[in-house]
Specification:
Organism: Hominiventricola filiformis
Protein name: Phage portal protein
Distance between the termini: 101 Å
GO molecular function: structural molecule activity
Structural class: alpha+beta
Strand order of the largest sheet: 4-5-6-7
Pfam families: Phage_portal_2 (PF05136)
Number of strands: 11
Largest sheet: 4 strands, antiparallel
Helix content: 40-55%
Shape: extended
Strand content: 5-15%
Length: 504
Amino acid sequence: MNFIDHIVAAISPKAAYEREVYRQAYEEMRLYYDAGDYSRTNANWRVMNASAENTDRYSRDNVRARARDLERNSDVMNSVIGAYKRNVVGGGYQIQVKTDDPDLNKQIEKAWKKWCKKQNCDVTGTQSLNQIIRMAVKRKRVDGGILFVKRYTKDGYVPFKLQMIEVDELDLTTMQPRKPGNKVIGGIEYNEFNKPVGYFIRQYDIDGFSQREPVYVEAKDVIFYFTKQRPSQLREISDMVPTIPRIRDINEFMTAVSVKERIEACLAVFIKKALPTTGLNPYGRGNASSSEPKISYEGKTISPGMIKEMNAGDEVQVVNPSGQGSDATNFAKLQQRLVGAGQGISYEAVSRDMAESTYSSTRQGLIEDELTYKEEKELLIEILDEIYETFVISAVLSNKINIPKFWQDKDKYLDHEWIQEPKSWIDPQKESNATKTAMQTGQKTFKQIAAENGRDWRSQIDDMAEVLAYGKEKGVDMGGVIFGQKEDPAPDEGGGDESKRKEE
């Protein structure tokens, strides 16, 4: 009871009793959720609710710097990044144009393939489009995001190239918006609906240090590649943020284990010398008399198979560090499992350890991992869509592609699909049989199967038709090779074979 309760109790015990009853009822009501109480176990867990930007802005730069440090020095960190880069991008994406004109489709696809080369799509001329998007996926995992800036240049195949800008280059010092009523937060100008309308980008000299006045780029020419986790989130935060402390713990632990094992691997000895019994001079002058020369151990090392005599009375003591460390293997596995769980992928994807995996478990793990990668693919494809549409418009304006009625029916000529390079099978026979069954039962079409294998279904049919025709020309039954069945023999002129088949 507090001071007020004591006063109330002295005046009215009934009122004091009621106060205590209601207080207990109130405390029970507050403790419906264990996660919300402030009991002994949660006493130091003090948190607060804030907008996403207020939550992120004070930690964003420090988190990014630590993530980059682990990127440079942690194998576990790079295994996670590599898993996303391999599965989200892999061999890259192929365009399948879907206009009504097959010849126009081939023309656009040919032009796109040419533009994707490094000298045509990159303002620096150092990266192809596939290399750019691989870098973008990597930077998103580590930095939280990256900016694609559309640059309209005079050189190149079409007057359109991409410039990659790191999130560090967003100018944080600019606070004045270009348009009244807007606001600038984190180097980005927003309207009243928190929609980006422009980006203030710092300018550096080639040495990376000398800063000039920031350049304002309209939002229509910028693609900000990052994952938005909350409605109030304005800028990026590293995708690795939940697992950064754990990855660092793995590094620190493995370093400690490595040092311990190296020390234990170094066999060290002490020579315990016996004190001479005669000839001692308390003033340090003169030596003990002896008829035999003394052996010096200074600078001596132990070698394999060594046989060495020692002075009389000398004793060898081996240095053996005491104490046993934890089971490093099990600890590392547990931490890698937790890192994978935090990133939405399996332990096998993080560790590349398949020793304890079976076909079924590996297959299930790949299915679950693919669902995680699919979210990233969806976001990346949206960016590729915008890049492709800008390319087609630039190609039409520069007369690289001739489409007379493009502006009257633009959406029709911009229709397309992306086909990712196929993945290798775990068990080709099982996967092939499953694909065959799915197509025969109508669960999948040939078009879907071709896309899963990274092929255009029309091109694949054309290839098969060409092979069958050439085989028939050379007298080889390629149908039996490809489809597993022989062609029916041609009926004779009397129709005997035909009548037999009808009777059967």
